[in-house]
Amino acid sequence: MAGTGKTPTTPLWEVFIRSRGGLAHRHVGSLHAADATLALHAARDLFTRRGEGISLWIVPASAIIASDPADAGMLFEPTGSKIYRHPTFYEVPEEVGHM
Amino acid sequence: MATTSIRVAETPLVLYALRRADDALILSHRLSQWIGRGPTLEEEMAFGNFGLDLIGQARALYAYAAAIEAAGHDEDDFAYLRDASQYRNLLLVEQPNGDFAVTMLRQLFYSAFADFYWRAMMTSRDATLAAIAAKSEKESAYHFSHAAEWVIRLGDGTAESHARTETACEALWPFTGEMFESDAAERELCEAGVIIDPASLRAPWRARLGEVFAAAGLALPSPDRWMQRGGRSGRHSEHLGHLLAEMQILPRSFPGAEW
């Protein structure tokens, strides 16, 4: 985890912002802070300066379980040939109308 | 300096607006001096944001002072073409940044007051001041919250951070009494319902600081200690002159310069 080893007193935190009611929180970046409260303050000061959001989530970067890029072939490539999983693959009969 | 200073007709309301605007502008300038020197990128951005909030408050108050003075001055004239003796800010906000503890404690002392002050001023009979208060209150509330979190961590942190915060408190405390004072000009506005009496905020301010200091493991100095005054009437520490020289050199040397 970048940063966490080098700065033990200010670990890395990931920041998520909900831009409007009804939308999901979206990852916007990361920051260093000593604890959760200061991380929330820093997220406010770094990432919401231009009215970007109405809600913040802060997650310790160490709590995120990430897939290994070396496994990308095994994990993600097989899906490339399964075009029938997209709804656009199927023709909807005229009689059905709007679903 | 090349350009002479303006003369301001300080009616009670003009004087009032200038005092509050000067508080915001000078504190904003102090915070801007951290840019490029912050302990972390995150905290430097916080100082920058606070400074911009305060610049916005200063601009609104200068614009209002200009409108009621009606002498053809604008915001820039008030900021750049007055000498230290014409500045009406609290001595507290012109104190040098010192270390991180000094800057944070200065911010705590001022914002704990400003937050209560602007909240109370939202009921002003003066619609412009009430509107400025409503905007400033939200900003000050965050400044207080942020400064309080840091002072708690500094006081309750290492022996070094605790000692530095105590030293900062000793240095800044004598400048806190001035926030609650008013003179004849302000009492007149107070009686007319235009402004509130800052003395009414002394007890809540102290109670609020008491909570922060208790959590920080710091002792709140006695309210009876001797207090410094003079900023409101233009008697400043030498620090303000240096600050203004830096802030005003460009517009004074090149009047009307644009870039």
Automatic annotation (TrEMBL), chain A:
It comes from the Bacteria. It holds the Pfam family PaaB. InterPro entries: PaaB, PaaB_sf. This is 1,2-phenylacetyl-CoA epoxidase subunit B.
